[in-house]
Design goal:
single chain; alpha/beta; 434 Repressor (Amino-terminal Domain); Rossmann fold; 14 helices; 16% strand; elongated
């Protein structure tokens, strides 16, 4: 057998030459198909090991109709999406699948992110908190299985795995009321996925306690939370605030503290997602936790069920949340103890 170039990957032909058999027979052995004796199989496998041949599983899959790839669209600016991607990798690996990731960035919209995954021949798509209209998601689901995570979608064509967001916000409000807070404001998430459900949970919890709700505009990021905190400082400051997500809560905390307002002595703050931000020692934010591992396992499982034609009883799978209490919440102090002259709000 002529020497093989050192930088060239061994092929079936190289194994065949080493074992003294045909390339077709090597293919039979590598595919574990019938047609070769035990002795021949042993000789071919020994030859493959000697020259360092490894079957190219991706090439074999591409020759078939399966890629064993699950496409994942995520927002690069959302810490919670990073947590979900980690969970999806673990769940996919257990099922013998790989992930192909495609990010939504300020300069790359969701449509382009999805298009990239379709070019990669992904068998199914898992979309994390997508912003696309329901009609667009349903149209996409007509071509391949689509599982939406962390957003409710009113379409029988789209599978959904999400947290019970209204229940999560009720947990946050009930925690604050149990501490003795009666003036609890909610910093809203606007039209972001999950915002309506969290807003509803906040209102229902306050209504059940016969307290008056107050919702102020917020959003997804730190700047949105900072703007909301400035609005609160300019008016009647509540004793507690629930916030749409942890990133927004970080903005609220920053402005309150720079304005000289003590957290939690003057204002208790609760975030949502229990992302890596909330768990930082310097933040230590009380937050509503979503069960990342459970969400990821259900999303991968539902995608594979659709691919395998397994009958599905429920289109939407809802996972209960839990509250993680840290140092940003405490019982309110009497106003005559903590009230002070108004401070200048940083621009």
């Amino acid at each position: 057998m002529p020497p093989r170039a050192p930088d060239r990957r061994p092929t079936l032909a190289d194994v065949a030459a080493r074992a003294g058999v045909s390339t077709a027979l090597v293919s039979i052995v590598m595919r574990d198909a019938p047609g070769a004796s035990t002795a021949t199989r042993d000789r071919v496998r020994r030859a493959a090991e000697e020259i360092g041949y490894r079957p190219d599983s991706r090439a074999r899959l591409l020759r078939s109709s399966r890629s064993r790839l699950l496409g994942v669209v995520f927002g690069v600016q959302h810490p919670f999406h990073g947590d979900l991607v980690s969970g999806l990798y673990a769940a996919a690996e257990r099922a013998g699948y790989e992930l192909a990731l495609s990010a939504v960035t300020p300069g790359r919209d969701e449509r382009r992110a999805v298009a990239g995954l379709l070019q990669d021949r992904c068998e199914a798509l898992v979309l994390l908190g997508p912003s696309s209209p329901t009609a667009a998601l349903a149209d996409l689901a007509a071509h391949l299985p689509v599982v939406v995570v962390a957003r409710s979608v009113r379409s029988a064509a789209v599978d959904v795995v999400r947290t019970a967001d209204d229940e999560g916000m009720r947990l946050a409000v009930e925690h604050l009321i149990a501490l003795g807070h009666h003036d609890v404001v909610h910093v809203d998430g606007g039209r972001a996925p999950g915002a309506a459900e969290r807003r509803r949970g906040y209102r229902e919890a306050l209504g059940a306690a016969r307290l008056t709700p107050r919702v102020v505009p917020g959003g997804l990021g730190e700047d949105d939370g900072a703007a909301a905190a400035r609005d609160l400082l300019a008016g009647s400051l509540p004793t507690a605030v629930t916030v749409f997500n942890d990133r927004c809560a970080l903005g609220v905390l920053d402005v309150l503290r720079r304005a000289g307002r003590a957290v939690p002595e003057e204002v208790s703050v609760v975030g949502y997602d229990d992302s890596r931000i909330a768990r930082l020692t310097s933040v230590d934010l009380t937050s509503v936790a979503q069960d990342v591992d459970r969400l990821a396992a259900l999303a991968v499982g539902r995608a594979l069920d659709r691919l395998d034609g397994v009958p599905v009883e429920r289109r939407e799978l809802v996972v209960p949340p839990r509250l993680v209490v840290r140092s940003t919440t405490a019982p309110p102090r009497p106003r005559d103890v903590v009230e002070r002259p108004s401070c200048r709000v940083p621009p």
